[in-house]
Amino acid sequence: MAKVMAVNAGSSSLKYKLYEMPEEKVLCSGNVERIGHEDGIFGIKFGDQSIKETLPIYDHAKGVELVLEALIKYGIVKSLDEIECVGHRVVQGGKYFSHSAEFDEKNAAIIESLTPLDPLHAPAHITGWKAFKAALPNVPAIAVFDTAYHQTMEPEDYLYPIPYEMSEKYDCRRYGAHGTSHNYLADTAIAHYFGGKAEGTRILSCHIGSGASLCAIKDGKCVATTMGLTPLGGVMMGTRTGDLDPSVMDYLCTCTGKNVDEMYDIFNKKSGLLGVSGISNDTRDIEDAALKGNERAILTSKLFARRVADFIGQYYVRLGKIDLMIFSAGIGENSAYFREMILKDVEEALGLKIDYELNAKIRGKEAVISKDGSAIKVIILPTDEEVMIARDCMKRIENGSI
Ligand code: ADP
């Protein structure tokens, strides 16, 4: 038995989950929010308790201190020595990491050097790591990369058709994201629907939350994924554009007088569901408005579904066939409306037979929503990125590599 902590450090937040392994029992979980503010929020859930406090949390070190104090205060651990490993989610591992790795000084320097590829998250990951390292100096840490699962792609799947020297010199290529989630979904689906045998399976995983990506998975390994150099690419998302003709940037800068940074910010934060609808980045609001007849909300829903459907078609061809299609993450798990719209766009071409009545009832739990005789089995499967981090920690504890 071992206790391991899965951590997701953002620029102003720090999510954490403490596991008892190998049982994968969640001992507590929580979020430190508004780090850097006078009115920071510390949250923790354990047993049937859910506690939230507002207090000054000026930096990540304070956030970590609050988490560790709470573990003792609420009797979740007797001593901090019980924690055997801290696993950190890291968004960008570049070409360097195809698996999780020890989060030591050497790898921290590589992660930091990847900041230009991920200016939003990389500095936060380093800050989170330093804070835990200072508080728990003898506890080993590992980094679990969102990009690692996609490192099995072939060059014709990950290269951009730009001058080759530029791809090489600047490592400018598709890296993908959500790899930890796609990996979890593939492993779970293979265990539940293919008797644990990955060989011969062809799976399409649709992780559709406020960030969204699709992943084509052959024999349990990623062969193609929609996100690109950064998580801006691929399908349309809550506030992100997804793929665009690159000329859109230049054209809109000329039209609006905005510079590249300002336009890039609009593509990241003010586009997608929010930008097209002018209503919200949340599918619940879009769905409500569409059902009341709001034309823009209806158009937004159709555009969103069409962008996902286009990639489903592309990945059907890339895989040669699809045995199993998975819907997951906030929208994929919860929004029957969006699932139905996407499936209606592809059902004729792919020979799907969907039980739409059942689809309408399922929210946040595993279920098969295709009928017998459907050419592809379609399922809803809740994702769990944190448990993958805890499993990677445990593997390293068991094989003695940390
Ligand atoms: P993140 O990328 O931040 O992890 P999530 O996977 O949590 O995002 O997805 C969040 C999005 O999922 C919300 O913005 C909303 O669009 C959608 N969503 C969440 N819950 C529901 C629900 N009950 N019904 C419909 N949509 C939902």
Question: Would you mind describing this structure in some detail?
Answer:
The chain is of the alpha/beta class and 402 residues long. It has 2 domains: 2-145, Nucleotidyltransferase, domain 5 (2-Layer Sandwich), CATH 3.30.420; 195-385, 2-Layer Sandwich (Nucleotidyltransferase, domain 5). Helix content is 41%, strand content 22%. The chain is built from 15 helices and 14 strands. It has an 8-stranded mixed sheet, sandwiched between helices. Helix 6 crosses helix 15 and helix 10 (283-291) crosses helix 11 (295-319). The longest helix is centred in the last third of the chain and has 25 residues, at 295-319. The radius of gyration is 21 Å and the shape is globular. The chain binds adenosine-5'-diphosphate. Adenosine-5'-diphosphate is lined by residues 209-211, 238, 281-284, 329-331, 334-335.
What characteristics describe this protein?
single chain, 402 residues, alpha/beta, 2 domains, 41% helix, 22% strand, globular
Describe the global form.
Answer: globular
Sheet/helix structural class: alpha/beta
List the helices and strands in order: EEEEEHEEHHEHHHEEEHHHHHEHHHEEH
How widely separated are the two ends?
Answer: 16 Å
Report the CATH superfamily of the largest domain. Answer: ATPase, nucleotide binding domain
Give every kind of bound small molecule, once each: adenosine-5'-diphosphate
The low-confidence runs, each spanning 5 or more residues with pLDDT under 50, are: none
Mean pLDDT: 97
Total count of helical runs of at least 4 residues: 15
By CATH reckoning, the class of the largest domain would read: Alpha Beta
By CATH, the architecture of the largest domain is named: 2-Layer Sandwich
The share of residues in helices is 40-55%
Instruction: Count every beta strand, where a strand is a DSSP E run of 2 or more residues.
Output: 14
The order of strands across the largest sheet is 5-4-3-2-1-6-8-7
Oligomer: single chain
Can you summarize the main beta sheet? 8 strands, mixed
Strand content: 15-25%
